[in-house]
Amino acid sequence: MTEKIDLIVIGGGAAGITTALHVAKSGLSGLLLEARSRLGGRMFTAQTSGSDVAAELGAEFIHGRPPEIFDILQSHKVAVNTVKGDFLRLENGELQSTDFFFQVDQLMEKMNDRGPDESFAQFLERCCPERDQEKVKQWARGYVTGFHAADPELISVHSLVKGMRAEEEIGGHQSFRMKGGYATLLQIWEKQLKEAGVRVELGAKVKSIRWKKGEVELEVDRNGENVKYTVPKVLVTLPLSLLQTGAVNFVPELSSKQSALDKLVMGKVIRVTLCFRERFWDGLHAGESSKTFSNASFLFSSEDWFPTWWTTMPERLPVITGWAPFHCAERLTGKSADFIVARATETLTKILKVDIKEITRLLASAYFHDWEADPFSGGAYSYVKAGGDSAQKDLSAPIDDTLFFAGEATDFTGHHGTVHGAIRSGNRAAEEILKAR
Length: 437
Description:
Elements: E1 7-10, H1 14-25, E2 30-34, E3 45-47, E4 54-56, E5 62-63, H2 67-75, E6 80-82, E7 86-91, E8 94-97, H3 100-108, H4 120-127, H5 134-148, H6 157-169, E9 175-178, H7 182-196, E10 199-202, E11 204-212, E12 215-222, E13 225-231, E14 233-236, H8 240-245, E15 249-251, H9 258-262, E16 264-266, E17 269-276, E18 296-300, E19 308-311, E20 319-325, H10 327-332, H11 337-352, H12 356-362, E21 363-368, E22 382-384, H13 391-396, E23 403-405, H14 419-435
Parallel strand pairs: 1-2, 1-14, 2-10, 7-18, 11-15, 14-23
Antiparallel strand pairs: 3-4, 5-9, 6-9, 7-8, 11-12, 12-13, 16-22, 17-20, 17-21, 18-19, 19-20
Helix pairs in contact: 1-7, 1-14, 3-5
């Protein structure tokens, strides 16, 4: 007897899981195909050796209080920690306390979406020509590059304004971490998928999608075995870069999506988490002041390899994470683990003015994942080019009530690039699928 499948979901990240659960609860039978050997997509938690630290290789923070995440965590009584601590920056070779975000916020509040769109770099040159604003402009460029993993010459001011409004609605100025990392959320979802009767196939790489209204035929490499499925509807949650590079062959091509794909960009990031035997930075001082690093949460610099760092504050664990966005990531991607860890420890040595031999002696382990080189992600998360106001909405639009689209790059509410944005897109796609049945 042939198994009846109402919907195939391509991709086992937040968007795909959310959609599969949503439609299953409404009575549709679903099959979730994930190319990796695990669920989670760009959520990827590694359990560190010899400790109970959850090292996030992908998503780590919850930005604000998005109900898409907080409702789940609260209903399952998952503890959440507020990110706290000092924000420090390296300037003229000295580390000092910073009002970095206040200054950047003041500058970015000058942006608006009432006039024609422009890139963030164009906005900076137009709005702040004064020479005494150069330092703030430099930090603003660094913020956009770091937080959005974006090229300031490309990213849309209109999209940044929309994102700022969306953040305000959920208190995005504050960040949180969940106990156990995003692995905790995945454990909840995996249990729910099983209870909802959603079948999950890992190691299932979709090679081609032949479609016409009301019918889709998928050719899938399922752990080395060639398998075909024919279903009435398919949800595509492939990361932006895979759609742009044609990693999956659509027949006919998605010509209606090409304009949208041309106006979106996949950001680049490499992060590395260094686990030490002790918090050696606790006794170090910020410049010539008596202030120590013991309460440091974030460290900002203009270093070439890893300009941004953060600790686990308010938890005082001997763990620190380096963040290499945009051009920094471009130079690191494809390199060996030894090369990346060496660049990270060298950078930390310069920032904290500690002997490299001492850092090397205290380093217990290091964790990273090269998302740019990952064939199932091709980058970190998406952003919008100047002039791409409608790109996310156009990319999200269903085709003939047969092909549906979700994933963080299809969120057009200002939350793209986040886990909760991916969840939002999954809920939106689920409603579209149910409406079309």
